[in-house]
Amino acid sequence: MTLNSDAKKQLPHDFIWGFATASFQIEGSTDVDGRGKSIWDDFSKLPGKTLDGKDGDVATDSYQRWKEDIELLAEYGVKSYRFSIAWPRIIPLGGRNDPVNAKGIKFYSNLIDGLLAKGIIPFVTLYHWDLPQALHERYGGWLNKEEITQDFVHFAKVCFEAFGDRVQNWLTINEPWCVSAIGYGYGRFAPGRTSERSRSAEGDSSTEPYIVAHNELVAHAHVVKLYRDQYKRQQGGQIGITLNGDWCMPYDDSPENIAAAQRSLDFHIGWYADPVYLGTDYPESMRKLLRDRLPRFTDEELALVKGSSDFYGMNTYTTKLCMDGGNDEFQGNVKTTFTRPDGTQLGNQAHCSWLQDYAPGFRALLNYLWKRYQSPIYVTENGFAVKDEHTKSVEDAIKDTERVHYFKGVTASLRAAILEDGCDIRAYFGWSLLDNFEWADGYTTRFGCTYVDYETQKRYPKDSAKFLVKFFKENVAAAPAS
Ligand code: GBH
């Protein structure tokens, strides 16, 4: 008996962990070094579009403070950092015939070199919602399949050429559901199109989100094909999409509510994951409800989309109790609640209404995705926003007990899903490295594991960052001696 065989089981030595961010949420410097506008620039400045009326012009100032951010990551000792590239910094007007901005390339190139110098693996998202404004104006952005596909592929090609010698982990699109349903259905995210005329003069929530989703899938698949055909062999990396999705449980054991929970999974996850991982049409439950408003894949498109992700990129935050009913099509006509039939709450309430802390749901979702899609899972986002944290002093905010509780639960669930349930899970990124611009919430909702004082831009590690770092240092096996 060696000591080792008695040692506590650990996660594989090559398990990747770290923190995630996105360009528009942290960079600021929106009119610096030739950056073009993104659809979030003007949208966030329109009255009523963000809760506190604030925009992304400064954010966490990370375009200027990127070295400091790398220092912070190095102090934490993360293995990897997930960030996104702002398309309008690389190609200010966005299109395939528009000029490429050398200063934009230089910024990300320096960032990547800086990370690698500290031994941190860059995990890079190509599209985290900051579409060049010019493309939205030119042809309707994601609404125009032919144009957006060619322009997104071109942008990706510029990135593979410029960074692919050093980046081995690529994500095409972050949360296509949010782009389509929130950007073109609810109209709460840029470009803010919706049928609700109080919010937007233009838009059709009954058709546009489904067109946009289809175009996202097709454009994503073309980017993956490009990478596999022209770069993968030489650069040796992997590429995939990352989907948002929360675990859905039936409110009670009535057959309607059991069906509703599955329908909710279909409308959030299956919408994208079924075509990508199973190569099938959109889920039957969607076809049944939406009929011809849901586009049809051509044979050629479906062949391209099928298998177009090297892994399952999973962003998840919470669990919902599902009830049949309502008329919100983006929820699949499912009503959700956190209050159980006996009146108790599922878990701690976060600052945002849509989030409660329920760790068993995290484990259940991992199992569901692994069984259904059989693709190695990379948890690319997961996190919690403490209630009223923005009103607290730094001293109080960094003692983020509720966020620590959240991460304790999910990391235990992660361990169990890997070591007991046998799910193939290869990465975990906490959202987020820093408090940052939380889209329509402005700066009122803080998701950071590091507190940001927006007056001074000083960063303060929260207890939750320390917890995650300690967990992964203790639970990931040491690299074998080479
Ligand atoms: C992620 O989305 C984003 O990738 C990231 O940029 C963001 O900062 C982070 O979450 C925290 O929010 O009120 O009906 O519109 C998470 C998935 C899906 C969660 C939509 C919020 C809002 C539901 N999001 N959901 S609704």
TrEMBL record:
Domain of life of the source: Eukaryota
Catalytic residues (positions): E381
Catalysed reaction, written as an equation: Hydrolysis of terminal, non-reducing beta-D-glucosyl residues with release of beta-D-glucose
Family matches, as InterPro entries: GH (IPR017853), GH_1_N_CS (IPR033132), Glyco_hydro_1 (IPR001360), Glyco_hydro_1_AS (IPR018120)
Transmembrane segments: none
Pfam family, one: Glyco_hydro_1
Entry protein name: beta-glucosidase
Species: Pterulicium gracile
